[in-house]
């Protein structure tokens, strides 16, 4: 009887330990940092990051990055796709901020953190899922790996800290809110006239949005054959998105339908 009680107690302790070590899918620490130090500007099309404030709270950022780095491949594989994608997007953005803080305030561009032969995005300075990785590894070999997520809206969620990149969101991405957050990021980015322009082919009612800083072309096709100018400014649009690399490789272009507002 005593052995049974001891065994039950050990099982209980193991379960409590596992629960205590479970990853926080609310990303509370990162969310708090973003809420405190990121503010929307330019009518919500861009965000301003208070790097000096983040520098003061760098220990909190370091703790969050440690939490990311301690997740094993086995634990990661047990999560839902939404949890995995939110994890990777937050990891990319948080490690990008950390990379900038290594030289802040003595830098004017993230490109200064690279070298003549290597960009900062290829620098393997972080550990994720048990391996030393770069920001490019997270984006291109984990998030955009064909057949894994196939989510085109990540282009407006991962923030490379370059002038042509989309805005850093003022909250952490979470599995429960992921679709809503990706949609919000997409609308904010495409509605930014400083980064995008479009023109219409009047013969087949196709429009093309040219993204000036992201290296990709966003094509949208009207679902209705009625001319563009007779539509309400807010309308359903199907978006096909492809990056420069996808054009070269000929890989599949994925489609996302959404509501947005773009004027004449």
Protein topology:
Layout: H1 2-21, H2 28-37, E1 38-41, E2 46-49, H3 51-56, H4 58-69, H5 73-77, H6 81-101, E3 126-128, E4 131-133, H7 135-143, H8 178-190, E5 196-201, E6 206-211, E7 216-222, E8 234-243, H9 244-249, E9 254-261
Antiparallel strand pairs: 1-2, 3-4, 5-6, 6-7, 7-8, 8-9
Helix pairs in contact: 4-6, 6-7
Main attributes of the structure:
single chain, 264 residues, alpha+beta, 2 domains, 9 helices, 9 strands, disordered C terminus
Beta-strand percentage range? 15-25%
What separation lies between the terminal Cα atoms?
79 Å
Lateral arrangement of strands in the main beta sheet: 5-6-7-8-9
Let me know the largest β-sheet: 5 strands, antiparallel
Number of domains: 2
Describe the 3D structure:
It is a single chain. This protein has helices spanning 2-21, 28-37, 51-56, 58-69, 73-77, 81-101, 135-143, 178-190, 244-249; strands at residues 38-41, 46-49, 126-128, 131-133, 196-201, 206-211, 216-222, 234-243, 254-261. The protein folds into 2 domains: 22-190, no CATH class; 196-261, no CATH class. It has 264 residues and is α+β, with helices and mostly antiparallel strands. The chain is globular, with a radius of gyration of 21 Å. Helices cover 39% and strands 19% of the residues. The strands form 3 sheets. The protein has a 5-stranded antiparallel beta sheet. Strands 1-2 form a two-stranded antiparallel ribbon. Helix 4 (58-69) packs across helix 6 (81-101). The protein is built from 9 helices and 9 strands.
